[in-house]
Structure prediction request, 459 residues.
Amino acid sequence: MMATQPRATQHEGLSTMLEPVYAEVLRRNPGEPEFHQAVCEVLETLAPVLAARPEFIDAKLIERICEPERQIIFRVPWTDDSGTVHINRGFRVEFNSALGPFKGGLRFHPSVNLGIVKFLAFEQTFKNALTGMNIGGGKGGSDFDPKGRSDAEIMRFCQSFMTELYRHLGEHTDVPAGDIGVSSREIGFLFGQYRRITNRWEAGVLTGKGLDWGGSQARTQATGYGSVLFTAEMLKASGEDLHGQQVVVSGSGNVAIYSIEKAQQLGANVLTCSDSGGYVVDDKGIDIDLLKQVKENERGRVSDYAERRGSSARYVAGGSVWDVPCDVALPSATQNELDADAASTLVRNGVKAVAEGANMPTTPEGVRVFRQAGVAFGPGKAANAGGVATSALEMQQNAGREIWSFEQAEDRLAQIMRAIHDSCYRTAERYGAPGDYVAGANIAGFERVAEAMAAQGLI
Ligand code: NDP
Prediction:
């Protein structure tokens, strides 16, 4: 399964007033198609708010919101186990801190570049606003490829990465977490190096920590569980529930695994998982214990899962997981993995709900197909916000030196996902677009950030 290449400009839906703003974003950020796509998708939905709030136009709120507060690019030298020197590039885009310290994950993947980090940080700003908590938006990462690297190599890379990044972080300034290629192992190495350089045991500087040293129960599960809880709320709003539904999930990383687990707990039948090599269809439903064993303990591939699972599962090399008929689709791998053709196939096969566990996994044309077909479509900035919300709960526990139980953390997550759903749903209704979660999420997130920026003056 390969991610579709993004298109640079999709702006048929932009109002005349916002065309020049978008043109300036294109001019100022050349060669960053994912960032253009993310900005365009938000701007397309903001015309009704600006009509109602002309003071936002006078204060150039949209122009300011599209420009990151700070962008950091740095060299990351490290040695592999044979002593060979490698040079990677590190990034941290501190996009918006009107609502709180910059907050957002780190991604280690060879595809990472400034445009990808910028798109993720922009999305994160609105997502974090939707949680209702005091967290700003940021994102970072490196073009480092962790696949096939030993623990010692990963540690040396993380130490070198943090040796530059530490000076930009702090519990009141910027608080990174994990993302693709960064899980609790990497957060551990990063935290260790931060502690060593600063001589401070500052738990609130990173989230996704181990449970024995400041991590929160349910953080590992939060993004996947949250995306399924959001899906359940969307189905409820249209008089259905998840029980007995056929579900197709893409990806087999953190978000995918815990989406599968929660969907199964709520009585759904999950048929698939995937990685960048291909996908697995399991007629008996994915065996979550076997998937965790293969992916989390052995760092294997979904083809290994299929081999070990027996006759109910088959592995399809390449191909599109979206060809598998289902009621609910949960894209949970990476950006632009679900295009218009895939969306049309899903619609033809009768899909009722789609929720983005990943960030921007659906292309703009794919989103249009779902919206025109009346499919309940939960955009990533709402559907996958459970991860960062639980990170904010981790910061809260660290600040109060508290340790919550799994049940406490999961209860809070469920409340937050319900509140995010209701906020998107009500906002869409208020602006004359009932059932449009894309408009609801963009407008609700924008309003909160814009109000805070307006109140804080020209900064
Ligand atoms: P992981 O690294 O745990 O898993 C990523 C999964 O996506 C793997 O199955 C990987 O397959 C696949 N994948 C990655 N890149 C590509 C690509 N270019 N083409 C095809 N498949 C790809 O990451 P997460 O599960 O943490 O993140 C998945 C998505 O969810 C990302 O979009 C991330 O930004 C988003 N997200 C994550 C949050 C979290 O808490 N972890 C929070 C909110 C959003 P392979 O192993 O073959 O590369």
Q: What stands out?
A: Residues 1-3, 109, 111, 178-181, 223, 251-256, 275-277, 332-334, 357-359, 384, 387 surround NDP (CB under 6 Å). The mean pLDDT is 96. The radius of gyration is 21 Å. The CA atoms of residues 199 and 217 lie 26 Å apart.
